[in-house]
DNA sequence: ATAATATAAGTGAGTGCTCACTCACTTGTT
DNA sequence: AACAAGTGAGTGAGCACTCACTTATATTAT
């Protein structure tokens, strides 16, 4: 049974910065409100109240409301894909290629856990990508540079070995991502229900193996 | 090559109401702006300017900005699922069950075309479901009552015949929906690129057949 | 057929409120 | 004493919405 440790993770991220205690309070309050109500429906007086600071404090470090949003999302955007790529390199592909099932299991479980760990930020990110084309471009670039490459290498390996269907990488990634997201959306939209990431991983991989394996 | 006929469809919907010309202008302008900028980032002066009416006119019929949003989304929420169910009954299941592939092809193509036809409203709906729990509940209820039943019947038929895997209906629906949505998201997020719905349908069905068929 | 009257639709200046943000000042830290 | 962090009243802008008035349309009387 996976435990929702988004608070712990965000707290860890905050601890790594040299912000004052009150500035960290501002970020925590902002994330909560942006996640619950949306960026636009959250006012800076709201943030000040929840953080227990003055309105001027809200602007001291981040200059604008938009700056607060960037401070919250930048770590997610910059870390989600590099982290995936790095973990891939060290944990999954560094030694000889594992079986396809092991590869998919590792990938899927890793991403489900990431969704569990970052669900508030992902909820904020989700609403932002609808109208923030700069952010969409940023995510797309990071994805192509840091994630597509390693997975392309892995899938090419299995394809060249005749283990999986001879489809374009983009197409296969689309199916993997959309199946993971269909479980991930439940985590993001209904945080009151804990999702068994191990059981979910098993179901996802079972379906993907059937869909992709020769 | 599918043509984006959302304007034609929305125009048809408007023609079916007894609203005045200026009121219809208000709705058209509202949909465009809500879709492009989001509900919160759209102001009622914005709507008045684009519709070419006075600010008071914006409120004449719909009373509040929120009322305009409801007027736009209600037809989508009330029609998307009933339409799916009705079309299923008359076009797909009325005669004897077709082959699994024909069934999936019909379903997938129908839903992709619906996404194409309603992409602006779906874009608005997407942002609303993030924070409007009433709307989410409404969609969920409509889905369970009008869509789940017919698809459950169909999938039970194929399962009982030993044609597909012995998985729960909810699980299989999740995979169908998420795969369709992975193509549909491209339609919604990047309307400047037309999506070949027939080719997409073929790819989707190929993957789903592999994933579900025994 | 035309004029008068009633009703509906539309108008846009104005309202009260809240917003994002500022900055002179106070408090806390080094 | 100097500097940094925090404060909160105040600012200008723009919001959603109102409403007294104007214009357009429909109905009725002549």
From TrEMBL, chains A, B:
Q: Which is an annotated GO molecular function term of this record?
A: DNA binding
Query: DNA-binding region at which residues?
Result: 43-62
HTH tetR-type domain location is 20-80
* Alphabetical keyword list: DNA-binding
BP term (GO), one: regulation of DNA-templated transcription
The protein's name is HTH tetR-type domain-containing protein
- This chain's source organism reads Secundilactobacillus malefermentans
């Amino acid at each position: 049974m996976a435990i929702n440790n988004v608070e712990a993770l965000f707290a860890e991220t905050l601890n790594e910065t040299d912000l004052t205690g009150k500035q960290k309070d501002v970020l925590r309050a902002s994330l909560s409100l942006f996640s619950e109500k949306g960026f636009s429906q959250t006012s800076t007086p709201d943030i000040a109240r929840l953080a227990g600071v003055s309105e001027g404090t809200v602007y001291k470090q981040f200059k604008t409301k938009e700056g607060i949003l960037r401070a919250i999302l930048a770590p997610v955007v910059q870390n989600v894909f590099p982290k995936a790529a790095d973990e891939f390199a060290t944990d999954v592909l560094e030694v000889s290629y594992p079986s396809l099932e092991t590869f998919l299991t590792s990938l899927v479980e890793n991403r489900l856990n990431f969704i569990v760990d970052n669900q508030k930020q992902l909820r904020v990110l989700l609403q932002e990508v609808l109208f923030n084309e700069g952010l969409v471009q940023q995510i797309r670039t990071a994805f192509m540079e840091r994630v597509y490459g390693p997975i392309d290498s892995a899938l090419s390996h299995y394809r060249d070995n005749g283990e999986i269907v001879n489809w374009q990488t983009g197409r296969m990634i689309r199916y993997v991502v959309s199946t993971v997201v269909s479980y991930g959306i439940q985590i993001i939209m209904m945080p009151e229900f804990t999702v068994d990431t191990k059981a979910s991983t098993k179901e996802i991989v079972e379906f993907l193996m059937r869909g992709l394996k020769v």
